[in-house]
Design goal:
This protein has 476 residues and is of the alpha/beta class. The chain folds into two domains: 104 residues, no CATH class; 292 residues, Alpha/Beta hydrolase fold, catalytic domain (Rossmann fold, 3-Layer(aba) Sandwich), CATH 3.40.50.
């Protein structure tokens, strides 16, 4: 196995407490006081909706005042007083707004100096997920091979658009597909439940749809279900297994370098999460009466863990608006339009994931099952494996993703790669300048070197694919 190690990663934070910076992970549960969890959790979503509705008139007034004091025809718009009022009104409106699903905003890419239009199409759909294809409208076919990538986005708080930068990095030389998970509040109760077993079924079904000629990249939380799905497909000798899987900053074994996030989950136990953070979707959302872990609670956790940083960011926004620094203000808007847009998670999926991954550590202990069937990563033989970690990752600590190599013991060593990226945290593993310049090229090289390659252990029989498809049809 080819490895790049940086010992400083293990030493990061020794002697001081590191505050996690959660972006799309299972660690943002709000702390509710005392033993009143059930009493507070049951109506919390309804109370939140009432509070949000009560602020509607104030938001409308703030927006009108902002427009009034920014109107060039208003003499006050050119004074510090007027700019301060307009900035205050914008801050109030933004911090009380409900942020919807962000747009992808990927209309074209540049490949070899040529501007190539992008068409985003839905090619597979189930109640809780759509598979999006970023179709590139080339005028002439590229000479370089264009491996097919399935990006599995985290279903853990934020929308798939959080991986916009990840998609843009791979689009020039890859045929990119991505999972677009739906907010549970938008899925009618009549469409049934959704848990971790269903998540694994979805991944297998997508890989079947892609026909096996694909590579799968799991970003953060999906690392566990993706590894489980590939293990099940290998056990069935499914010919549609991917050529390779890349696990990025995922909680494969959270016992390794256990951090505050992992210890909190273990110490609380699954009953605490069930009683304190699960509530029902209120009317008039389509998912009325569905049990969910609501997005606003996740957002509370995300923000409260780094409250000082967020307060400072909004103070800076106020200063930028008063000074007329439009570029800095726009960067703030773009980041927080994405960061503050959160989705509800189906309660059964959230609770099963917390229990399986963070409390029982079922996968590394060999105790994880899928609909009663044991999951054995040692069955994986034909799929190349790459793991990527961030030196300063305070959500999935260094070593937790690398643990996949120990579990997948029968993958040949020359088909394994582990890489630790220096000087990045959790978000930097899949986005940002270091991802684009150092991580993405390594992944692209790994994918290209294993594109279409199968090991000597065989390709499986065609009837296995039909059997697998029949199983999926039965559970879907």
């Amino acid at each position: 196995m080819t490895e790049t190690r940086h010992s400083a990663a293990v030493q990061h934070g020794v002697g001081k407490e590191i505050k996690p910076t959660p972006i799309g992970e299972f660690d943002g549960a709000a702390r509710l006081p005392g033993e009143a969890g059930v009493l507070l959790a049951t109506p919390m979503y309804w109370l939140y909706e009432m509070g949000h509705a009560a602020l509607d008139p104030a938001r409308a007034f703030a927006d009108a005042a902002r427009l009034f004091y920014r109107n060039p025809a208003n003499p006050f718009a050119h004074t510090t007083y007027g700019k301060s009022i307009a900035a205050s009104m914008e801050l109030f409106e933004r911090v009380t707004r409900r942020y919807g699903r962000p747009e992808w905003q990927i209309d074209a890419i540049t490949v070899g100096g040529e501007r190539v239009p992008i068409h985003i199409n839905t090619v597979w759909e189930r109640p809780f997920c759509r598979l999006l294809h970023f179709e590139r409208a080339f005028t002439r076919a590229p000479r370089r091979p264009q491996p097919k990538l399935l990006l599995v986005a985290p279903m853990s708080g934020h929308y798939a658009t959080l991986l916009r930068g990840t998609v843009e990095a791979f689009l020039p030389n890859h045929d990119v597909y991505i999972t677009d998970w739906q907010s549970a509040r938008s899925v009618p109760l009549s469409d049934g439940r959704f848990d971790l077993d269903d998540y694994i079924d979805y991944i297998i079904s997508m890989l079947h749809m892609l026909g096996g000629d694909a590579h799968v990249i799991a970003v953060c939380q999906p690392s566990v279900p993706v590894l489980a799905a590939v293990a099940l497909m290998e056990a069935d000798k499914d010919p549609y297994v991917p050529h390779s899987m890349i696990l990025m900053g995922g909680p494969i074994d959270t016992r390794i370098n256990s951090n505050a996030v992992n210890k909190m989950a273990e110490s609380r136990g699954i009953d605490w999460f069930r009683n304190h953070v699960v509530t029902k979707v209120p009317f008039p959302h389509p998912g009325f009466m569905r049990d969910v872990y609501p997005g606003f609670l996740q957002l509370h956790g995300f923000v409260s863990m780094n409250l000082d940083r967020h307060i400072e960011a909004h103070q800076n926004l106020f200063r930028h608006l008063v000074k007329g620094d439009g570029d800095s203000a726009q960067k703030h808007r773009e980041f927080y339009d994405e960061y503050l847009a959160v989705m509800d998670l189906a309660a059964e999926f959230y609770l099963q994931t917390v229990d399986t991954v963070f409390i029982r550590h079922a996968l590394p202990k060999g105790e994880m099952t899928h609909r009663g069937r044991p999951i054995d990563p040692a069955q994986i033989k034909r799929v190349a494996l790459m793991t990527v970690e961030g030196e300063h990752d305070d959500i999935s600590a260094v070593g937790q993703t690398e643990a996949a190599h120990r579990l997948c013991m029968h993958i040949p060593s020359d088909n394994k790669v582990h890489y630790v990226q220096p000087a990045v945290g959790h978000y930097g593993v899949f986005n940002g300048s270091r991802f684009r310049s150092e991580i993405a090229p390594r992944i692209a090289d790994f994918v290209l070197s294993h594109d279409g390659r199968r090991s000597q252990h065989g390709n499986g029989a065609a009837h296995a694919a039909h059997a697998g498809a029949a199983k999926l049809a039965a559970v879907e």
